[in-house]
Amino acid sequence: MSLLSKLCETYDNCSEFVGEDTIKDKDTDKKVEKRRPLFPCNHSTRNAHLEITIDYNGNFKRASTVDKNDAITITAVTEESDNRVGNPAPHGLNDELRYIAGDLINYFKQSDKLEKDFSLKNTAYLEQLQKWCESPFPHPKAEAIYKYLIKKRVIKDLIDCKLILTDENGYLIPNEKQNPTELYKVTPSEVYKAFCRFRVESQHWIEDRTYKDKTLFESWSNYCRSLEGKTGICYASGKETILAEKHPKYIRTSGDGAKLISGNDDINFTFRGIFTASSQACAIGSEISQKAHAALKWLIDRQGYRKYDHAIVVWSTGSIDAMNPVEDYYDSDTITVDIGSDTSEAYASKISKMIDGYRQKLKPDENINIAAFDAATTGRLSVIYYREFNTMDYLDRLQSWYDSCCWVRKIFLKDKTVRYIVFTPSPVEITRAAYGQNPDDKIYHSTIERLLPCIIDGQQIPYDLVKKAVIKASNPQSFDYTTTWENVLETACALYKKYNEKERYKMALDFERTSRDYLFGRLLAVADELESWALWENGDKRPTTASRYFSRFSAQPYQTWKIIEENLRIYVDRLGAKANGMLKVIDEIMSKFKTEDFISPKALCGEYLLGYHNQKYYFTQNLKEKESKQ
Questions:
Q1: Contact yes or no for 74/19 (Cβ under 8 A)
Q2: Which of 182, 228, 318, 628 would suit a FRET pair with 15, their CA atoms being 20 to 30 Å apart?
Q3: What is the phi-psi region of residue 53: left when phi exceeds 0, alpha when psi lies from -120 to 50, beta otherwise?
Q4: Crossing angle for the helix pair 516-537 and 557-575, nearest 10 degrees?
Q5: Are 472 and 433 in contact (CB under 8 A)?
Q6: How far is Cα 56 from Cα 53, in angstroms, rounded to an integer?
Q7: Other CB atoms closer than 10 Å to residue 426's CB: what's the count?
Q8: pLDDT digits (tens, 9 = 90+) for 111-150
Q9: 287 and 41 in contact (C-beta within 8 Å)?
């Protein structure tokens, strides 16, 4: 219940954002991006197709279709209507035509089976609206809409506006495909299912849109709170209050049917032998549920990570903003790498500055909350990870992760130039490096779930992920594009470096390291570079011997090196004196081997990838090195 309590606390702290569906540009202070708003209590959103404008006295003025870019509409709902599937529960104000149009049945044949359905829905809608208007919490806009709807002429007005079509007998055409009006074009199915929202124009107020009026939101919320309901002890707040019978859905996206709290299976196995009612297992106050779900939807849409049914959100209950450990935080301006020195300190300094930026925004006494969600089925949403941290502890752990799990990456800028940065792979990149570029959704979910404790709690990276990434990087021939393989290689190096932190591997070429695997990796890089050079001068773009034997080299380095070395002779002869510098590098590396290590049949570990990448990067940053060693 701690999650619900923190979300409810966040909602109360951010009440100023209620109803706001845009964010502001930090530089211009203009509203530029539309998102799901922080819902008022007892409200949700629907996509509107139609907008009807009336005046203060309930007289029709005009009607028009709604542009799809402006279709998201805040709608007053009840627990029943927000979960209506197979029940006629009406929304509070804006709703479908079959709910609001009392004259709809006049435009269908008397034998039509829909007649009873229309009458039932419209009656329920008008009765609920009337009770709201007659309650201690009325609103003049709701009263104006009620005055208009009891006239039962909505369909007639829409026909007069040429938004709805009738046949030669005067019956409504539910779905017109031949010569559709604008309303038929935007309505997904039958036109009587078109969702309608209202405007009420008057000189008495500035805001005439019912779906933007905060006073109207408050009026409906107060009315809902005044209704009688089942009371009991709320498991989240510990107080006696009106309990929620049903809980909101649409949590991760506006079309998400999975619920966090659901208990509607009372005839099969859910309660058998343990409980007799769902409330015995979980009782949550109606207001707590409304606020917690509204805050969660808002946070996920505002700053959450969503991919493959996964949703991960990180927030502070006070300042809201917080670093999400799943996101990528590197770009072309991160840092460049100076050759000849270890770049770890430079990268650590950059990360420290970024973390310090968040430290200044967050208060030391605040908590950081991390929640990850995944859908076990289409109707059930699971909390797969939830933790609360002190702000400073959380940022310290993030900084430790970014400092230790990093490597050099080659990126291509817009002008097609190449730049080298230092990066920390995201969980998504790690998943792709270990399981391929298009792994199954379940693999994404399980891998990210396993990596979160490594990032947040400082746990050791699972060795199987490191091993899989090393194996993938050892098979360049299995990749369609060289850049894709290079990214996997860079990620594998970062993982291996992180897994073996005690070794203190450098991201620059380490001339002092004499371990067998590192030296063999360097040898492979020199052979690859020498052959690539010769092929380039001859205009040949085929793969090098080193790249073709990459996988075999990792398993049998000594035997495979003899094959690669023999194949190098033709390219050495082709380059002539130009190859002397590269041959000298090979000799220098060979001199550092112990004889027993060099001839050992033992397979190489992931360290050889570090030696390979360090040596290749060294050559890249020193293009004149070849000529200077002639």
A1: yes
A2: 228
A3: beta
A4: 30
A5: yes
A6: 10
A7: 21
A8: 566 777 888 999 999 999 999 999 999 999 999 999 999 9
A9: yes
Question: Which is nearest to 19 in space by CA: 95, 67, 75?
Answer: 75
List, in sequence order, every residue forming a beta bridge with 34; answer none if it has no partner.
22
Output the CA–CA distances (angstroms, integers) from residue 434 to 119, 202, 430, 448, 468, in the order listed. 59, 62, 6, 12, 5
pLDDT band at 277 (very low <50, low <70, confident <90, very high): low
Measured CA to CA in angstroms, residue 441 lies from 85, 436, 450, 454 at distances of 28, 12, 14, 21
Q: How many CA atoms lie within 13 A of 66 on its CB side?
A: 22
- Largest alpha-carbon pair distance within the chain? 99
Strand pairing partners for 209? 199
Q: CB–CB of 604/513 below 8 Å?
A: no
Residue 246 has, within 13 A of its CA and on its CB side, a CA count of: 15
At 8, list the tokens: 């409810």
CB 403 within 8 A of CB 328: no
Tally of CB atoms within 10 A around 610 = 30
Using only C-alpha atoms, what is the Rg of the chain?
A: 33
Is 581 within 8 Å of 630 (Cβ atoms)? yes
β-strand 50-55 against 195-201: which pairing, if any?
parallel
CB 236 within 8 A of CB 293: no
What angle (nearest 5°) sits at the alpha carbon of residue 162, between those of residues 156 and 167? 75
- How many residues are given for the chain? 630
Token pair listed for 259:
């619920």
- With beta carbons less than 8 A apart as the criterion, state whether 251 and 82 touch: no
Which of 502, 523, 507 is closest to 614 using CA atoms? 507
Distance CA 136, CA 152 (A): 26
Contact 422, 343 (CB under 8 A): yes
Residue of 461, 397, 404 lying closest to 427 (CA atoms): 461
- Give backbone dihedrals phi and psi of 73, rounded to 5 degrees, phi first: -130, 125
Q: Positive or negative CA dihedral for 267, 272, 277, 281?
A: negative
Q: Pinpoint the alpha helices (H) of 170-317.
A: 182-186, 214-226, 278-281, 286-303
For 499, the token pair is: 């897994």
User: Which pLDDT tens digit goes with each residue over 55-101?
Assistant: 999 999 999 999 988 888 999 999 889 888 777 899 999 999 999 99
Contact status, residue 629 vs residue 581, Cβ threshold 8 Å: yes
